[in-house]
Automatic annotation (TrEMBL):
This is Carbohydrate ABC transporter permease. Residues 86-278 form the ABC transmembrane type-1 domain. The keyword DNA-binding does not apply. GO terms for cellular component: plasma membrane. SUPFAM superfamilies: MetI-like. It is a multi-pass membrane protein. Belongs to the binding-protein-dependent transport system permease family.
Amino acid sequence: MKRFVKKLARHWKSTDFFQKMLLVLLTLLAAFMLLPIVFIFNHAFKPINELFLYPPRFFVQHATLENVTNLMFKTQSTAIPFTRYLFNSIIVSAATLIAVILVSSLAAYAFSKHEFPGKKLFFALTIVSLMFAPEAVIIPRYLVVAKLGIMNTYFAHIFPFIAAPVSVFLFKQFVDQIPRDLIEAAKIDGAKEFRIYYGIVLPVCMPAVATIGILTFQGTWSQSETSTLFTQVESLKTLPYYAMTLTNGLANNVVGQGIAAVVTLLMFLPNLIIFLLFQRKVIATMANSGIK
């Protein structure tokens, strides 16, 4: 017994043994964390009888495309087809993504490399705004959107999310790393502000662009707040709102479960694909911004 314990202790002290054990543990943890993703894919292809089984089954037994068919064809006979909601979500997410990156990067460039009255105050207010929960600004957002007269437009989906304090903060961490001498040299060579921003600032901030792009897309693609509060025209509402209506009421709670499962999968897939494509940029952003 003592020999076995000593042998095990020697193996434990061995770096290779420790690395192999760590690899096994991480593999098991990764497999465990993949279970929700596997469930989402299985759930979308379950027939109606398997969706209401008790106890529920994790894996689909008789996979079917009936839910996909119902989503694509049965909704075409309604007043607003599914494709309209999908189109609105794509337009809103893309426009919000571009607007947030442009506004946040320009604001970060101004905060980092320019001097103007109230600079420290405005940046402090930007940091303080990080403390406010989204629920705390719903009423002010509604009042601003109503006063601007953009209710029932695409701008009502986009405008409330353009001001992104987290995005400004992350961008500023990257812009701070650019030497002022480099910017001054560019100005001496005749470069205008836009040329400096496009040719020097943005290339340095590409990891932050990828990270902010992921965060912004996830936030806008899955939110239904703007469709509920700022839009009464059904043809301007987005996919998350449509997903909510599929299970509203007693009848829809039963009939709409299959279609809702497919819509949930469609809402999840873009987030998964984008994150897998740009995950290295996210890690680089966290390392450079000082966030642990």
